Amino acid sequence: MELSPFGAYGGSETDIAALLEELKAESEESGKDFIWRKTSIPTSFPLLSYTTVYRNSDQETLYLVMETPRDSKVKIQTLAPSSAKYEEMELNGHTAHYLKNDSFVYTDSHVYQEISWMIEKEGQAIIYRLGSDSPAMTKERLMEAAKSI
What we know:
By secondary structure, the protein is of the alpha+beta class.
């Protein structure tokens, strides 16, 4: 699939401010406290993303997201609630980041964990994110899968 299976992108600071004003107006008009809107991918989206989904016989799911920045001057920042677990680790000679959130709102299980790392090849950065929303998936099994990529 294109893009990442979870998360959101709001656009540039200007785009986000304009969208926020639209959503506030829609909220006031409708009387709803929460307004959601699915939008198309903006041409300014800073990453080219592709996701492959793997599911084993126990229905445990792995999401492999591969992303490349359109521009070499992209800053990527991941935000997570303070309740999420974070650990920096080494993976095949690269710095990797492990994140586990037990109150993730985008999955039925409310669990999401992932290991992410970046590799540069021929001057092009490739960001790998290997994640799972399966509650039985362990950090060790996720790490073992990441090592094989």
